[in-house]
Design goal:
The chain has 9 helices and 2 strands; from the N terminus they run αβαβααααααα. It is mostly helical. β1 (27-29), α2 and β2 (46-48) form a beta-alpha-beta unit. α5 packs antiparallel against α6 and α8 (144-157) packs antiparallel against α9 (161-176). The model is unreliable at 4-22 (pLDDT under 50).
Length: 180
């Protein structure tokens, strides 16, 4: 009975995630993923950690979750006009470029970014950029080791157990996804 309810919950949550964000890297909240943490489907999630803590990064992530890249760009532009530090905004620009599938731009912006509280996400997405660029013949190839090194940095900076499980899923994709 309990297993059936969990499977039903998992199915509903996954359908909601797919409807809200039909992309390879779905952005999910802790509220969405917490009920299924023991039965987490194998996907390359990006976790929006604290939706209650609405800061500018979470606002950008929420816009990206809703596939509203225009609003995310407007927010970053307004932050830039208010004099926000450029090295922090590079992180925002990198996130946006990643979800626009501009992986080389995202990689460059994220490498320039300095953001202490989101280092785990920075290195996770750098690894994802490298992975995506490696499977696309139009981009530079990275070795599995280079990709895994960034995922390891993401694990090292990560403080949330469920996020560590998500990073491990990204590692599985990099290890077994056909990268040489």
């Amino acid at each position: 009975m309990v297993r059936s309810v969990l499977i039903l919950l998992l199915t509903i949550i996954m359908l909601l995630a797919l409807v809200g964000c039909v992309q390879k890297y779905p952005i999910v909240t802790l509220e969405e993923i917490e009920p299924m943490k023991d039965y987490l489907p194998q996907k390359q999630y990006i976790l929006l950690e604290e939706p209650a803590e609405i800061n500018d990064i979470n606002k950008v992530m929420l816009f990206l979750k809703d596939k509203d890249i225009k609003k995310a760009k407007e927010l970053v532009s307004s932050l830039r006009n208010k004099g926000e530090k450029e090295k922090k905004l590079n992180f925002h620009d990198g996130l946006i470029a990643f979800f626009e599938k501009k992986y080389s731009v995202a990689l460059h912006m994220l490498e320039l970014a300095e953001i202490d509280s989101y280092k785990h996400l920075k290195y996770l997405i750098i690894g994802d950029c490298m992975y995506e660029m490696t499977i696309d013949p139009n981009y530079k190839n990275f070795t599995t080791k280079q990709i895994l090194d960034n995922y390891q940095k993401a694990l090292d900076y990560c403080k949330t157990e469920i996020y560590k499980e998500i990073i491990k899923m990204h590692i599985k994709y990099a290890k077994y996804g056909g990268i040489s």
